[in-house]
Design brief:
Distance between the termini: 40 Å
Strand content: 15-25%
Order of helices and strands: HHHHEEEEEE
Shape: rod-shaped
Helix content: 25-40%
Number of helices: 4
Strand order of the largest sheet: 1-2-3-6-5-4
Largest sheet: 6 strands, antiparallel, barrel
Structural class: alpha+beta
């Protein structure tokens, strides 16, 4: 009984500590604010000293892994790779949080009972269910388009054929 109470207290403390240290990704980072404040300094020596201090803090943070600078292309690639999963709404991936459609190419496919399993260029794996027999089987290199549908499912269209219901499984 005491052991359970101690574990419960520890879990609560860790949760509170984690919440207290959580970052708000929607605001301007302190590193950027420090640089902006340096720009306002009129006297050249003070401004240079401020910039040196701010740049040093940024370099230290990148060297320690606390801060990582990424290009917009890397963000877009990550967003495409996460398509089909619920994405955080904390500004981490820029202003546009979720994309509703994705166009890609099939890298592999296999037949399952009543449908197919396909893998696309971004590395995600999708299960297509209740596929009508009249549709052509997907092949490597085929184009595929995903559109967000209801209840976490997606409308999947391969080579412009009739769309079918699908969901991401990996």
């Amino acid at each position: 009984m005491i052991r359970c109470a101690i574990l419960g207290f520890a879990a609560s403390w860790l949760t509170i500590t984690s919440i207290a240290h959580a970052q708000d990704f929607s605001g301007t980072p302190a590193y950027v604010e420090d640089l902006r404040s340096c720009q306002l300094i009129v006297e050249e020596r003070e401004r240079l000293a401020c910039f040196d201090k701010s740049v040093s803090a940024i370099l230290d943070a990148t060297n320690s892994g606390e801060l990582r600078i990424v290009r917009q292309e890397q963000i877009e690639q990550t967003r495409r790779g996460m398509f089909g999963f619920v994405q955080p709404k904390n500004g981490l991936f820029g202003a546009k949080e979720e994309i509703d459609t994705l166009q890609s190419k099939i890298t592999s496919s296999r037949s399952i009972r009543g449908g197919w399993i396909i893998t696309i260029e971004e590395g995600s794996v999708w299960q297509l269910s209740n596929v009508p027999a009249r549709l052509s089987a997907p092949k490597t290199g085929d184009s595929v388009e995903f559109k967000k549908a209801a209840l976490g499912s997606y409308f999947v269209r391969i080579n412009g054929q009739l769309g079918v219901k699908g969901r991401r499984i990996e």
